[in-house]
Structures are given as C-alpha cells and as structure tokens.
Design a protein that fits this description.
By secondary structure, this protein is an alpha/beta fold. The chain has 14 helices and 13 strands. It binds pyridoxal-5'-phosphate.
C-alpha cells in the first residue's frame, strides 16, 4: 500500500486508475524542476545537459523492468495508436507473403482502426480478420501475418493467455503483437518468456504518468535490426543531426523513435516510475485479486440488478471489474457524485479498476455502500445524470 505517494482529493475513492492514473505526489516537484531548472535555465542546452534527448531510452529501460524485458528493448514516445501502427507495419514486412491480420472483437477500437487504415493504405489484398476472443486459436493458420491482441479487454477485463497464444501464433509462422494498455503496471508480465515479437502500452493508465503521457513499444532484440520503420522519423535515424536526405535506421530499438519527445510528460513519467521501486508485481496482483473478489461478492449481494460481465475466475481477469446495467451511464454519474469514481463504456457497462497501490479493502467497502445507495434508491434517475458528456 503506497497511498501516501499519491495526491488523491479527500473524500474520493478512485476506481478509474485503469483509465487515467491519479497524480503521484512526486510529479509536482519533478515538473517544477524540469520547467524551472531545465527548460527555463538551460533552454536548448537541455537536450544534452538534462538528458532530454536520451530520455525515451532511459525511461524505456525503467519500463522494461516492469514488463519482463531486457534493457535496450523498449522506447517511449508518441501515443499507443502510433506504436501499434509501427508494430503492425513491421510485422507485415516480416511476412510479405501473408495477407491476414488476426484480432478479436474485444480489442480496443483504435487498435483495429489503425490496423484497417494501414492495411487499406497498402492497397493489396490485405484482410483484417476480427473474431471472438475465444476463437483466436482456431483462426490462426498459415495465412496470418500477424496476431494483434490486447492482453486485457478494456471493457470486460477478460485476460488472454499471452504466452499460450503467442506460442500458437509462432507455430503457424505468424508474428505476435501484444497491447499491454491494461496490464502494464497491473500485473506481472514476462515478455521475454512469452517470446512475442512486439508489445506496446500506455503510461497514463496503471503507470500514473498523467493525461497525454507517452506510450512505449518493445521489440524483441533478435529481430529489431531487420526492421525498416514505416514511420521513419528523424529521431529514429542513425544520425539525426547529420541531416542526411536519406533515412538510415538508428541502432536497435532507437529506430522506433519518431519525432521530438514530450519532455514535460516524460519528466512526469520519470517521477511516476519511482513508485515502483521495491514493489513486487506479484504482490500487486495478489492484492488486486483480493480487492476485486471482495467487490464482486459485495456488489452481487447488495445490487442484484447489476450483471457481472467480467470473468468470474480471477485467473482469467485483469485488474478491473465490470457490471452491465441498463441505466449504467446515469448510474455511474450518480456514483461519481457520491465520491466514487469509475467510468462507463458503451453500451451499458460500468467499469471499476482496482489498483492496490492506493486502494484498500475499506475503500472497496465504502465504494460498495455508495453504489448500493445509488442502485437501491434509484438515485441515478435524474435528468442531470442522463445527459452524456463528450468523454465518458
Ligand atoms: C487506452 C488504450 C489505447 C489508447 O491509445 P492512445 O493512442 O494512447 O490514445 C489504445 N489501445 C488500448 C487497448 C487501450 O486500452
């Protein structure tokens, strides 16, 4: 429990760290330093003297430890949509004779949109094949260039077996790309043992680096030097300051960099990552399961009109619990008004994330009290809660 490391407003129980992590106390001071001691004082010298230029790589090395990867295999930058695009483009180059990208209908839409956009731009006979999550294995055949999946379903929390599906993909000669958006910082990940070629994730969810914080990408070290980046940005060039007219990819993972990195957001990420020093991810996982189980049993006991849509088996679930409820949007607004913050995903899903760094059993019990009050007393049945905001 590291609650004191976060600055969460009094009276709020925050069950939405799966969407946007709360503010780590250390970020304020760190950002202040970056703004005043670096940007203001060093001006352009900051790229060298404050290490801004190398920071996508040094932060990548810190993140690597949290996802079971070696140093020099992860780089930070851009958004997750962009990183997925890069990974997929590289995968298609690796399997030029294959035309199918396989994914599932539990994947986050941006991953599917980016894939479709890329495939359409290639103007060949490419196909994005989207199947049920349970049907992945039976759809893996020798036409599949890349298997592109998100480990934890953003809506239901359903957890894919990353190691097993990667092995199955490899058995038919396909490349495996994993989106770790809802698993990095939530549970142990052993990328190296899993042997996937690519992985990517974001840092503003369970890693608490703030709104708009950059994404990360991992490339397996034995293939990285064969990649010709589709997004051949100048900072991924072998010598960005040689300003050559032709692109030569930089060494290893550096080639997955694109353009100028967001220095202030990287600084926030750097401070946010301090929280993990000395934290055991398997301990986090154990506690997250404990909290989720408590939440499920209390909600089911007290709010029988809510239907669990997350897997009941904790081994098949990430760190979030979702319930379907017809008036889910309005109910979530009423719950938020009661001081418990979760979120809503169309069409009818109320989503609650459990992050043991700052949530304990008391918080779970109190949250269930608020939810029960809203559901049993129909507190959601007010106009002000029914008007959808732009961001749900
Ligand atoms: C949150 C999330 C994203 C977000 O992508 P951005 O480009 O960073 O906005 C993408 N994929 C998945 C699976 C996500 O959960």
């Amino acid at each position: 429990m590291r609650k004191q490391l976060f600055d969460i407003p009094k009276g709020i129980i925050y069950l939405d760290g799966n969407s946007l992590g709360p503010l780590p106390v250390s970020v304020n001071k760190k950002l202040n330093q970056t703004v005043n001691d670096e940007w203001r004082t060093l001006l352009i010298k900051g790229w060298n003297d404050a290490g801004w230029h190398r920071q996508p790589l040094t932060l990548g090395d810190r993140l690597a430890k949290l996802i079971g990867a070696q140093a020099n295999t992860v780089v930070v930058g851009d958004t997750l949509s962009i990183k997925i695009y890069q990974a997929l483009a590289a995968s298609l180059q690796m399997r030029p004779d294959r035309k199918v990208v396989l994914s599932d209908n539990g994947n986050f839409p941006t991953d599917l949109y980016m894939a479709k956009g890329l495939l359409d731009s290639l103007d060949k006979d490419y196909e994005l094949r989207i199947v049920d999550p349970e049907a992945i294995a039976e759809n893996l055949d020798e036409s599949v260039a890349a298997l592109m999946l998100t480990q934890v379903d953003y809506r239901t929390g359903r957890l894919h077996n990353m190691k097993e599906l990667t092995a199955r993909a490899h058995a038919v000669g396909s490349v495996a790309i994993w989106d770790l958006a809802h698993s990095a910082g939530a549970m142990p990940i052993d990328l190296e043992a899993c042997n996937a070629e690519f992985a990517a994730g974001c840092t503003y969810k369970y890693l608490n680096a703030g709104p708009g914080a950059p994404a990360f990408i991992y490339v397996r070290p034995d293939i990285v030097n064969d990649i010709k980046p589709a997004l051949a940005g100048w900072l991924g060039h072998a010598s960005p300051f040689g300003f050559e007219l032709n692109y030569t990819p930089g060494p290893a993972i550096e080639r997955m960099r694109v353009g100028t990195p967001p220095v202030l957001q990287m600084s926030a990420l750097d401070a946010a990552l301090d929280i993990w020093d000395g934290v055991s991810m398997s301990e986090i996982r154990k506690k997250s399961i404990l909290l989720s189980e408590l939440f499920i049993s209390e909600v089911e006991k007290r709010c029988p009109t809510l239907n669990l849509v997350s897997p009941r088996d904790s081994a098949k679930r990430g760190s979030q619990v979702s319930f379907a409820f017809e008036n889910g949007y309005a109910a979530m607004q009423a719950i938020i008004a009661g001081g418990v913050i979760g979120d809503f995903r169309a069409p009818n899903i109320m989503r609650f994330g459990f992050t043991p760094l700052y949530i304990d059993e008391d918080d779970v019990r109190q949250a269930v009290d608020v939810i029960t009050d809203v559901i049993q007393n129909n507190l959601w049945d007010r106009e002000e809660y029914k008007t959808r905001k732009e961001v749900t």
